[in-house]
Amino acid sequence: MKGIIQKYFSTKRLILLIIAMAILIFIPALENRRLLNIAIIALMYVTLGESWNLLSGMSGLFSINHALFFGLGTYGVTFGLNKLGFSVLGSILLGLAMNLVAATIVGYIGTKLSGLYFTMAFIGLWQTVYTFSYQFFSITGGSLGLSMPRELLLSKRTLYFIALIMAIASMIFYQFIRRSRLGTNFVALKENPDLANALGSNIRGYRFLSTIISACMASFAGSFYAFYMMTNNPEVFSGIISLKIIMVVIVGGMGHVFGPLLGISFVIMDELIRGMMPSQFAPFSVIIYGFALIIMAMVKPEGLISIFKKKPKDNGVAAKQSKKATA
Amino acid sequence: MKKIIALTLSLLVLIGSLAGCGNSDGKGTTETKSTETTEAGTGKEYEPYKISMITQLTGDNTFGGNEYKNGAELAIKQLGGEINGRKIEMVFADGPTQEATLAEFERLYNNGSRAFVSGYGCIADRAFASMVDEMEATYLSLAWDADLIQGESDYFFRIGANVTDFAKGAIEQAAKIGEDYLKIPADELKVAFVYNTRLAHVMEPMKEKMAELGIEAVVFEGYPTDTKDFVPIITKMQSAEYDIFIPLQGVTDGTPFQKKMFELNYTPPVTFGAGVYYDTPIFAELGDDITNGIMTQSYTTPYIADDAAAGIKEFREEYEQIYGHAPLTHALQAYGGVYIYAKALESLDPADWDDTKKVAAAVKALDLDFGELPWYWGVKFDELNSNTRANQFITNQWIDGKLECVYPENLKTRDAIVPWK
Amino acid sequence: MLNEEMQVIFIFIERKRHDEFFDIFIVQGDYMNLSAYINIIFNGICIGGLYGLTSSAWSFQCGALKFANFAYGASLMATMYLTYFGIREWNIPAFIVMPLILIFNFGLGMLMRKVLLKNENRGTQIITTMALNLIIINLVTFVFTGFPRDMALLEKRLYITETISIGATQFTAFCLSAVILIGFNTFLKKTWTGRAIRSVVQNRDAATLMGIQSEKILDQAFALSYLLIGISGMLLITMFQAEPNYGNYIQTIAFVVCVSAGLGSLSGAFGTGILVGVISALIQTLLGSQWNDIVLFGLFIVILLVRPNGIFVSKKNVAKTF
């Protein structure tokens, strides 16, 4: 036990951790609802970022409509609580089940086809679910949405702590998977699938598994969102949310556990600026997200986290490998 | 040694913040206006009372969102900017999406707003319906969802119409037109019913009412919002035999649909629209050939008879003068919402306005009859805070490029011409 | 004439729509006669042809040039908006607007290729073009507002018989699409640049050894495919209205068409486009319009699972890599 603690937490890291915890616990003490709100959204994006990180950063399957999983989690909870009368736990499980179905379809396609087709299938599935959520009013509440039972309203502080725990848990979970044997297989999926296959690794199975795990994480974030917003809305499937998730991870650093933590700086900045800029500039924030994403992806694919990482010895191999075309 | 000191210091910081956290009581904000500034008898200047609206000023529904903003502003202006000696003002925020609306709500609440009116689309009203009781902020909602209010509340009020009433009213109206003008009783009436699936919440009560009255829907088509090609639906309508065409459409699909019908040289026998598209100037732009004779069911609009509602004429004329185009029902809705606050605040001493409980109680106690407010509807809340006097709808007809009110008797400006010649 | 002699009575799915509390029996589609069907199918063919042209550009980019361009729909939508604003709002005569739009598209294609698509990593391409997609949509919303824009060209109908007709604009668009695609195909086969493009696509290193500047050729090819987008956009705006999210819809249709036809095949895209148009029209007629999107995209996913290389293409190892 002591060995593990010493391995993961050097003293420097431990101090940083404790100070971070202090800040995080201090926020609710300010009793400023707006800051709490911003913090909740930011922490939710950390969770979502970690889930995308797992799928794309670790396993190399680029999911461009990750909001699909997120939205299904929200819809599962609201549908279960509103229409079916399930308990809270039952509804969360319902959201999870719906995500499992979607992840199975996507994962199955991912095992058979390469990246581009995977993306197209994803978009097709997303479009279907998006249309479905609007059309079938009796099930999904259509464009109006369904209300969550009012008794389940949680105070902003409770929501904040739930979001905090979820974010920390997702980071620990990500790191745990990364350091495990499973994680190594996932990384092999991304780095060199042919070699891994030749070495006997079950590539198809691991693709499947990584999609499912990522979808489950996003599902929890979606279920949380249902409690935060107290309603559902087809907007949760929107492309803007997907863009935000991707941006958070890419700007922060893909493949690294603290990447999303750095990435949410953009989200926080946007929320703080809201209301200060003249209202005509609302679509502008999405444009800024997009540009940030493009610039980071082109210029600094390792993300902001690379500022903190020690630079490995550069012998030119890394540069050559990053140019290799992956189909 | 250094490590241990550093560790201990950081642990102390942690304990300090835990302690600070424990003292709070978890509710409210640090920036609430305290009531000390407005104690009666001090003779101090009161701060202007803020009524806040979060509406879609950008994004998909700019037109509607801005109409709401204009209506609210005009209301403040026509009230003279003050009531009982204390100034009132509007605070606007932009909420193009649900998440943005919630974020803006928190921000405005933080800055002291305690009185809210819905913005266009009322997109986050379900969230607010759950939240405002705990936050103690009055919220007047114009949302028409039938299941919006889940239980008793002291702060959340639904002041506008109910979608079920609207939908059922539309079918009743159509049936009445069939009986009065076409001489066909309701249970022999045949309709063609085409709707945009985003309006499914309006379609469902209509379907129920049609079943109840025995009306047969010979064509019953729902299409997704992004449908571009309407030839199959129109061809079906051409092949079928029916008496009244009932479209439920939005702006993005209504125009192509009407255009296509015109290109295919097909006019339904009688058109009775429900849904805001058929009231808009955008529809009027299609030209008299297409619009003449089309009837629509809508909320009370600024075009009802001048003597039906107090102040409707002034509203209409000043709106057109300031904003350059004729007002639609949206502006009137927002206008009405602010007027309800005005009536409630009038009954209170300005010193009490900062006590949200009193304001909410004043709103709840309102009893206004039809015609007292410019939007014609009255105000009387039932136990679930739904307005029971917002159930009067009107039927309009396009005649030579103008939208005229043809029903009910006390609000109409002329009779309908059915079928159109 | 056709009505009386060849009246065919179709009795469709008599659908019971069960509500929890009410039972309404609504018969879907009365007696629809043959000429109504023919009208619908003709309409589907014309629109499908246009979809085919639109999808062929995507097919070329993705299959032949191997660029994942997810900003495709947005570029199309931007073209439509610019055409509308040029002709209607800024009152520039049409014969000046058209070349300007084409130049704009060419430039956009070049820009994208030089900036975004230099990086060969497929994943990065997907993400950056997705971001560009949203940027374009929001830029258009910001500048032009999200209001749907319609050229309001009421088309005449060409009457073949009394009851069967085709829209004049639709038919012209269909013929134009066919002509342009044949032209593009000829360009690829017969001209020097076209052959250079094909050789670079087949084997880039060998082409470079033969003295062809591969990078430049690829730039030109990409920009040329953007010209196709420009033409499609101009044709589309004459028939449909433009709104910021139109691109997403077209993109998904392009997916369906291209995957069914096989990525990279231009003529296949045109034919499959027509097929999709007809199937879509039939679904709307037989099942009801609300099933259109769901059935179409459901079929898409099934095709992806079963025959990802294309329905009509023999099994090539195009899609099956890790």
TrEMBL record, chain A:
This is Branched-chain amino acid transport system permease protein. It comes from the Bacteria. The chain crosses the membrane at residues 12-30, 36-55, 62-81, 87-109, 116-137, 157-177, 208-228, 240-269, 281-299. It is found in: Cell membrane. It comes from Anaerobium acetethylicum. Its main location: membrane. It is a multi-pass membrane protein. GO terms for cellular component: plasma membrane. Keywords: Cell membrane, Membrane, Transmembrane, Transmembrane helix. CDD domains: TM_PBP1_LivM_like. InterPro entries: ABC_transp_permease, LivM-like. The keyword Membrane applies. GO terms for molecular function: branched-chain amino acid transmembrane transporter activity.
From TrEMBL, chain B:
InterPro entries: BCAA_transport (IPR051010), Leu-bd (IPR028081), Peripla_BP_I (IPR028082). Residues 48-369 form the Leucine-binding protein domain. Residues 1-19 form the signal peptide. The keyword Signal applies. It comes from the Bacteria. PROSITE patterns: PROKAR_LIPOPROTEIN. Keywords: Signal. PANTHER family: LEUCINE-SPECIFIC-BINDING PROTEIN, PERIPLASMIC BINDING PROTEIN OF ABC TRANSPORTER FOR NATURAL AMINO ACIDS. Belongs to the leucine-binding protein family. This is ABC-type branched-chain amino acid transport system, substrate-binding protein. The lineage of its organism: Bacteria, Bacillati, Bacillota, Clostridia, Lachnospirales.
Automatic annotation (TrEMBL), chain C:
GO terms for biological process: amino acid transport. It holds the Pfam family BPD_transp_2. It comes from the Bacteria. One of its GO terms (molecular function) is transmembrane transporter activity. GO terms for cellular component: plasma membrane. CDD domains: TM_PBP1_LivH_like. Keywords: Amino-acid transport, Cell membrane, Membrane, Transmembrane, Transmembrane helix, Transport. Belongs to the binding-protein-dependent transport system permease family. LivHM subfamily. This is Branched-chain amino acid transport system permease protein. It comes from Anaerobium acetethylicum. The lineage of its organism: Bacteria, Bacillati, Bacillota, Clostridia, Lachnospirales.
